[in-house]
Design a protein that fits this description.
With 206 residues, this protein is of the alpha/beta class. The protein has one domain: 3-Layer(aba) Sandwich (Rossmann fold). Helix content is 34%, strand content 27%. It contains six helices and eleven strands. It has a seven-stranded mixed beta sheet. Helix 1 links the parallel strand 1 and strand 2. Helix 1 packs across helix 6. It is globular and about 50 Å long. The relative contact order is 0.16. The mean pLDDT is 97.
Length: 206
């Protein structure tokens, strides 16, 4: 597959985007982050990207509140293409992506979710795990489809739920594993070691 040209979509602080930049700098991820796009004007991910010399843009996604669709979706796709992106990494992107983006980048759109999917999809999954009384949670990197956190799983890392955990302490430990899992999954894609058959992702040996 060769060097990935990653376009990152995010709505928050950008710690997972930072983990990709760190892995690239350390030689653990054969990729370049070619642009970062956010639906939130003041998102930390934009400032973080600019500090690293990565083109970063706030793009409106109106009129929709929870999805990227319609004319807005086409503007986002146009910006990603303009910067030569061939792979899309969702990093704390708080919108559902739709068919236009998925068809433009088939089996090249990945997301990281703070739970062991299919458990606890949706928002604030670490709080869901605590409320449920789960003993183990974690994070999942998966290919994106049109469902809510429902695409084929690439990599998972588990995190124990400890006695006395708060949402903040549990989330922090999950994020530590996210920052390892996301570069690992993208490197498998860069090395052409992923094969998707329906819902099953096979990892080919080196």
């Amino acid at each position: 597959m060769g060097t990935l040209r990653i376009g990152v979509l995010g709505s928050g602080a950008g710690s997972n985007m930072q983990s990709l930049l760190d892995a690239i700098a350390a030689g653990r991820l054969d990729a370049r982050v070619v642009c970062v796009l956010s639906d939130v004007a003041g998102a930390g991910i934009l400032e973080r990207a600019r500090r690293h010399g990565v083109p970063a843009f706030h793009l409106d996604a109106a009129p929709f509140k929870t999805k990227l669709d319609g004319e807005a979706e086409q503007r986002w796709i146009g910006t990603l293409r303009e910067h030569g992106a061939d792979t899309i990494a969702l990093a704390g992107f708080m919108r559902m992506v739709k068919r236009g983006l998925l068809q433009t980048f088939p089996q090249r759109v990945l997301n990281i979710h703070p739970a062991l999917l299919p458990a606890f999809p949706g928002l604030r999954a670490w709080e869901q795990a605590l409320a449920y009384g789960a003993k183990v949670t974690g994070c999942t990197v998966h290919f994106v489809d049109e469902g809510m956190d429902s695409g084929p799983v690439v990599v998972q890392r588990s995190v124990p739920v400890l006695p006395g955990d708060t949402p903040a302490t549990l989330h922090a430990r999950i994020q530590e594993q996210e920052h390892r899992a996301y570069p690992e999954a993208l490197q498998l894609l860069a090395a052409d070691r992923l094969r998707v058959n329906g819902r099953v992702v096979a990892i080919l040996p080196v």
